[in-house]
Design brief:
Elements lengths: L2 H36 L5 H4 L4 H8 L5 H16 L3 H5 L3 H5 L5 H32 L12 H26 L7 H16 L16 E2 L2 E2 L3 H24 L8 H32 L18 E5 L3 E6 L3 H22 L7 E4 L9 E4 L2 E4 L6 H21 L10 H21 L1 H4 L4 H24 L4 H4 L2 H7 L5 H16 L2 H8 L12 H11 L4 H18 L1 H5 L4 E8 L3 E8 L10 E6 L10 E4 L1 E5 L2 E9 L7 E8 L8 E2 L3 E4 L2
Parallel strand pairs: 4-5, 5-7
Antiparallel strand pairs: 1-2, 3-4, 6-7, 8-9, 9-13, 10-11, 10-14, 12-13, 14-15, 14-16
């Protein structure tokens, strides 16, 4: 063996022994991190079903508070165990006396600490796989995708390692080293709220995923910037720990460090408060952004856009789509405010970074949260129009309509009607402004036609009447709760016919009256509302009947083409309950799509209702649809199920009533 090779083997052996020594010392930290990131493996299978919803929670594929806090806790705990432990246990003199360079000592310790973090992230994703493997046939098929998981492991490992290098630097000042980071954790979100473009200051923004289809993008520039900062802190920590100091500050030096750290926190707090005041003062006087003056999209980060009535926050890679929506959204809220008789339009905050399977948009007060990455331009506009209608509903009623749950059909259906009306008026103005393309308008018309078809089918086939719709609790026991959207839309249209369009705004103002009856519900509630609007209840009901009858006569061919769905339990296996459905006529709605919803009992909440897609099989002249319900989703021998057919990809489906099934 040559001398050079022998020397390399000696160096590698020294490194190996030092790494194993560090790994043994980090083992308690590793176990702590395991229980923080993967402890749910020991209790979730015993207390809840691991379905699609639960997996999205435990996999932590999106940045959230708990994931960031967990990685920071683990990284700082490991960092404080790296060098400070050597001084506390008085082993630092032995360590530096070894025949190995101090730079090598630092690198091996840093590598061991980073290895702890990366291994915990990998084990965490493996335990996520074990959890979802308990239910491989989830609502949307197999969840665990390696191309996504490897990217998630990389991003989480990068963030954890960045925190680790900051922690090594902070450990030089013992607990006082945490003060700047505690301050940063409270100040940075404040600046981010005032100016979202400063979000890059927080390393956790690396985990705020943006997608190309279903694949998360890697923010390389953001990673490179924070990695460089972390390496600079690591270099400073190396000099402080191993080159220029024999031990961490103690005694008088420790007091000096404490005074300096406290002074630093006080100084930064004062400056942060001053910056907050200045930014808050000047923010309202900033000039409005012109969507037509910016065309180059950003690739990563968060962008902001201020229009006359709206303030948008959007993922940087979707800047063009955000500007396209912003140009039309201002006009939408102006049209809606005119219909409702609103004189002063509030500044509406629109967050376009929402990403969830449970809703397309959600509104609270004057804040709208909706996604942008999965919608076409016309659908994005429709969702915005629906959610902005909710903002005006809350403004007119001062948020009091939530006190009457039976009014929900008018809340959701009214927002849908206002969305259709405002977009229709926007299109009519298009001769001069070109607000919408012909293809977008065709999609919007098809959506409204499908919505009216679903409402008319429920009215005709299920004999659903206004009394049924306005008893929301009983309605949801018997029918698909999503029917309140199309049925509520036709009921709102009937009010616009019987009481004129201006009556829609008056309907919401009624709830602010101090003598409005608190115990009213169902039909009695709506009669009270109409009476105070000076609108005749009988005329309204007649208008609703006439509206549906006219649509049924006009679109008879469309309604007759929607098949009825008859079903039965075909087979029961140890793992699945197989439901066979036989449509009584072929479906003419491409793409042909069926769904089966099921629940354990009629009083189940919305988040307890699960849904699966059907498998279409053609057997000669028989057109069959099969559903495979996992047995571990059914508690007990009895359950309810409901069949649905989608007649338009963006519309709510036509659904049969709930029916009970018994597993014998």
């Amino acid at each position: 063996m040559s001398a050079g090779l022998y020397r390399v083997r000696l160096i590698l052996r020294k490194w190996k022994h030092l790494f194993l020594k560090e790994w043994r010392s980090f083992l308690p930290s590793w176990l702590l991190g395991f229980f923080i990131l993967s402890g749910d493996l020991f209790y979730r299978p015993f207390v809840e079903r691991i379905d699609e919803n639960t997996y999205q929670e435990v996999a932590a594929l999106e940045s959230n508070g708990m994931l960031t806090i967990s990685l920071a806790i683990i990284a700082f705990f490991v960092a404080y165990s790296t060098f400070l432990r050597e001084y506390d246990e008085k082993t630092i003199d032995w360590l530096v006396s070894l025949p190995i360079r101090r730079s090598e000592i630092f690198l091996i310790k840093a590598f061991a600490g980073a290895f702890v973090i990366v291994s915990l992230v990998c084990v965490g994703q493996f335990t996520n796989y074990l959890l979802q493997a308990l239910n491989p046939d989830s609502i949307e098929g197999k969840n665990f995708r390696l191309d996504v998981v490897f990217r998630i492991i990389f991003l989480q490992s990068v963030v954890g390692t960045i925190f680790f290098f900051h922690g090594i630097w902070a450990s030089r000042f013992r607990l006082f080293g945490l003060l700047p980071y505690v301050l940063a954790a409270s100040i940075i979100p404040l600046f981010e709220e005032l100016n979202p473009s400063l979000a890059w200051l927080n390393p956790a923004t690396i985990l705020r995923l943006e997608y190309a289809g279903r694949i998360p993008l890697i923010p390389w520039k953001l990673i490179a910037g924070h990695t460089l900062i972390a390496l600079l802190f690591g270099r400073s920590a190396y000099e402080r720990w191993l080159l220029h100091s024999e031990k961490p500050p103690s005694g008088p030096k420790r007091k000096i460090v404490a005074v300096l750290a406290t002074s630093f926190v006080f100084f930064c707090s004062c400056n942060g408060m001053l910056a907050w005041l200045l930014l808050g003062f000047f923010k309202g006087s900033l000039p409005m952004n012109d969507p037509n003056t910016r065309s180059q999209p950003k690739q990563f980060g968060v962008g902001t856009l201020q229009t006359k009535h709206l303030r948008f926050t959007y993922p940087g890679s979707f800047e063009r789509a955000a500007f396209q929506l912003a140009k039309r959204a201002d006009r939408i809220v102006e049209i809606q405010s005119k219909i409702l008789g609103i004189e002063e339009i509030p500044t509406i905050l629109v967050d376009l970074a929402e990403h969830t399977h449970f809703h397309e948009g959600i509104t609270g007060g004057i804040r709208i949260r909706m996604g942008i990455n999965e919608f076409s331009s016309w659908r994005l506009l429709h969702v915005f129009a629906h959610e902005s209608a909710h903002v005006f509903q809350q403004q007119l009623s001062q948020g009091r309509f939530d006190e009457w749950p039976d009014f929900r059909p008018f809340i959701e259906g009214g927002a849908e009607w206002l969305a259709f009306e405002s977009i229709s008026m926007l299109y009519e103005e298009g001769n001069s402004e070109k607000w919408m393309s012909e293809s977008e308008w065709a999609e919007e018309e098809a959506l409204r036609r499908a919505s009216r078809a679903v409402a008319t089918l429920a009215w005709q086939r299920h004999q659903i009447r206004i009394e049924d719709i306005l008893n929301v609790k009983e309605f949801e026991k018997r029918y698909d709760e999503r029917l309140t959207y199309p049925l509520g839309e036709t009921m709102t249209e009937a009010i616009a016919i019987a009481c004129e369009k201006k009556g829609i705004g008056s309907m919401w103002r009624v709830f602010t009256q101090s003598d409005f009856p608190q115990n009213a519900h169902g039909v009695l509630l709506v009669r009270h509302v109409l009476q105070r609007m000076h609108c005749d209840s009988e005329r309204w009901q007649q208008a609703h009947e006439k509206l549906l009858s006219e649509f049924a006569n006009k679109e008879r061919a469309l309604l007759d083409s929607v098949p009825r769905l008859e079903s039965k339990i075909k087979d029961i296996t140890p793992h699945f309950v197989i439901v066979e459905t036989h449509p009584d006529r072929p479906s003419s709605f491409p793409p042909e799509s069926y769904a089966l919803a099921f629940r354990s009992h009629e009083n189940a909440k919305s988040n307890e209702v699960r849904s699966i897609r059907g498998e279409i099989i053609q057997q000669g002249d028989m057109h069959l649809v099969f559903f495979r319900i996992p047995r571990n989703h059914i508690a007990g021998k009895r359950f309810d199920f409901m069949l649905s057919l989608f007649i338009h990809p963006a519309a709510f489906p036509y659904s049969e009533p709930w029916q009970a099934a018994l597993l014998e």
